[in-house]
Structure formats: C-alpha cells, structure tokens
Amino acid sequence: MIQQIKSWLEDATVDIFIGYRDVDGHAVPHGYTADRLEELGNWTVGTHRYPLETFALHLARIHPEATIGLLGRDCNQRALNVLSVWNQLHADRIRVLSLSCCPSALKTRADCSYLVPRKSGSFKHQVGVDAEMEAAELEALPSGERWARWAYEFQKCIKCYGCRDICPVCFCAECSLESDELVGTGKLPPEVPIFHLVRATHMAGRCVDCGLCEEACPADIPLRLLYRKVNAIVEDLFGYQTGSDTAQPPLSVLGDRVELEPLPMEKTG
Amino acid sequence: MTETQGVNAMECKLVPSICSYCGTGCGVLFEVIDGKLQGTMPMKSHPVNEGKLCIKGWHLHEHINSFMRLKSPLIKNNGRFEKATWDEAIQTTAQRLSSVVERHGPDSVGVLVSAKITNEENYLAQKFARACIGTNNVDHCARL
Ligand code: SF4
Ligand code: SF4
Ligand code: SF4
Ligand code: SF4
Q1: Which of B38, B39, B43 sits opposite A26 (nearest CB)?
Q2: Residue whose CA is closest, atom 8 of ligand 1?
Q3: Which residue range is the domain that position B131 belongs to?
Q4: pLDDT tens for each residue of A76-89
C-alpha cells in the first residue's frame, strides 16, 4: 500500500494523499505529498475512523485544481459518492485507495471502529433505544412506547453539534440547526423532537450510514438508527440507495431539473 | 515541475492537542491546511473523551482566526486602551501590583487560577501568591 501511494505521488497521479500517520500510537489523519515522501515512514492504519473526505473537501475548496488521493474505507467511498452527487467534489479529481474494513473469516484483518458491538446498560434497555436495534424491532412496539423511548434519547442531547460537525455529508454553509425560527437556539435540551427530526429529514438521500455521528455523540443517542429509517423510506419511495453510486438522488429537484411551474404568489390581505 | 509548484506546496495535516476550555482536557485534532487552522476534530483514540467533545471543544479553532482576537497587550492610559509590548505590560503590572501591596498590604490582593492552565502553571501561580505577594488568597475558576 505504501509503495502504491509513493508511486502515485512520484508520478503525480495525485498531488496529495490523505491517510493516517502514527503519532505516539495514535492514528492521526495526514496528507502526504511528493516533497515530503519520507513521512510515509510514519504511515499507519488503525481501527479509528475519521471523515477523510471532509479534509479532502476543505482542501479542494482551497486548491480546486489539485488531484487528491485518499484512503477509502467502504463508508468513505459512499460519502465521496454523495459529495460528488451534491456537486461538492469532482469525482475525476479524487483517487481512492481501498482499505480492507469489513470483517470476514476469509481475511486476516479488517480495520473499523464498528467491529466490536457496543453494549448498552440495562436502564437504556428499559427506557431508551438501543443502538444495536433494528428499525423493524422498534416498530413492533406500540407507538406510545416508541415515542417515549425516543423522547428519552432526544432529551439527553447536549447540543454539541458534534453529529453535524463530524458528518461527511453535512457540508452546508448555513445550517438549519442554528436557525432560531426552526429549532429555537440557546436552550437545553433542544426542542424535542424537532432538533433531531430536522437533521433526520436532511439526511434523507444523503446519510451514508457511516455511524460517525453516533460515535461522536456524547449522549449516546442512536442517531444512525434514526437516519437508517429515513433512508429506508427514501429507498421504498424512490428505489434510491444513498451513496451507492454517483447518480442523481431523487430529492435534488432544485436547480436545472425543476419541472414545476412557479405559481403566482397569492395576496393574503 | 514549475507549474505544479503551487499544488506541491499543499499541506493538510491534523495536529493533536488538548482542549483548553475546561479541566476535563479532551483530546482534539486541529485541522491545518496550508499552515492555517481550519477546524477541530475530537481525537478518537484519546482516553479522556474517546472521540467526543462538547460544543466548546468543537469550536476551538474559531477564535484563533477571529478578527476580534487580541494579539498584543493593551494598557489603559487616561481611560483609553493603547497597544503595548509585553515588556511594557509586565513592567506596568508589576509596578502597580507592588504599589497596591505597599499601600494596602498583601491581603488586598487575590490570585485566581484556572482549570485551563497546567498543573505546573497553577503551582507557580500559588507560589507567586504566597511567596512573592505574601497572601493565601488563592482560588480557582471552578469555585466562582
Ligand atoms: S443538519 Fe441539515 S442544514 Fe445542517 S449541515 Fe446538515 S444537512 Fe445542512
Ligand atoms: S451516519 Fe451520521 S455521520 Fe454518517 S453520513 Fe449518516 S448522518 Fe452523517
Ligand atoms: S452529537 Fe448527540 S448530543 Fe451532540 S448535538 Fe448531536 S445528538 Fe445532540
Ligand atoms: S471539549 Fe468540552 S468537556 Fe472537553 S475539555 Fe473542552 S470544554 Fe471541557
């Protein structure tokens, strides 16, 4: 793998390659370049995952002409597809080197922070929503109980905005979650359930189920499960699998694909 | 190679650090692109926060590039703040502090330390209060 990156940098296939370097045993994201090839001596891969495509996006905004290589787990690649669909990154300016992440008995190793299932405590089992649950399991419960369980989860939110800030597909310059009209800022807990549902609707056709939001949530809210359900609805309605390829999503009706006739505004006294 | 020079000068790295906003000391990674701080990420492998941050930690990078940031000391002269060098600022502070101690006694001074500084700095601050000024008036921001 290091040889491959080295040759990509040497023959200028990529101008920079974003992977990880070892800092005292921690895998820290790092951009390798041709003029500092010796840094590849510190190359490492650990189970911890970061949104490398977000760093690529920030780089591309500053250097639109650069070709960026990056280490791609499955989730990184799905996120890159979504970023390309939403015109945030040009697919032809990105080269991905795949990393073995999903586990299998046929492989000697896999690197992902999701390989060890997380266990919830008994209280959460009684009153909350366990992140390991499937949407169908939850839907089998009476709706009152389901609401109570989600409300328990949502009211724990400390509004750190970590779920949004770590999300590779939350790239908006202005975020609805900071809009006073929509979610009422400056209060804790945030309005239940609107704060979380606003974000959930935005993740329709966008969330790639990488789980970084859930990992970053200090309140242990099963966000991934929520967005998975939203995307299941998108798939049922439109037959669209988010992140699967670079085809247009069903929800991008804005821009040059608008077919609706704009109606004249009605005067309301 | 000259035409790719600009691209080659590209830099993107994450620099490990510790959040300075409270005594928890969460591990963070600063996202640096072309020498400029662009963002903050929680350090996933850090034993204290295990990849999580509060809202203060997530926004650590913002004040660094803020145009409101104070980059040199200011001394108030005749009711107006004026830019000063560090030497001038330290001199002025030392003189005024000694004159207060002389006039009103060491117990008229209190020293407030902080969870945001290191153990060693806290130690030095209390040493300064007790040995240099001569007061036991030392307290901590967490008790305010
Ligand atoms: S939560 Fe919604 S508005 Fe905010 S960054 Fe994400 S997609 Fe954009
Ligand atoms: S799982 Fe979370 S972090 Fe990942 S794409 Fe979906 S919303 Fe964003
Ligand atoms: S990461 Fe969790 S606690 Fe933070 S804003 Fe998102 S849901 Fe709330
Ligand atoms: S991120 Fe928040 S909890 Fe962690 S050290 Fe900073 S201020 Fe304290």
Answers
A1: B43
A2: A172
A3: 106-144
A4: 888 888 888 888 88
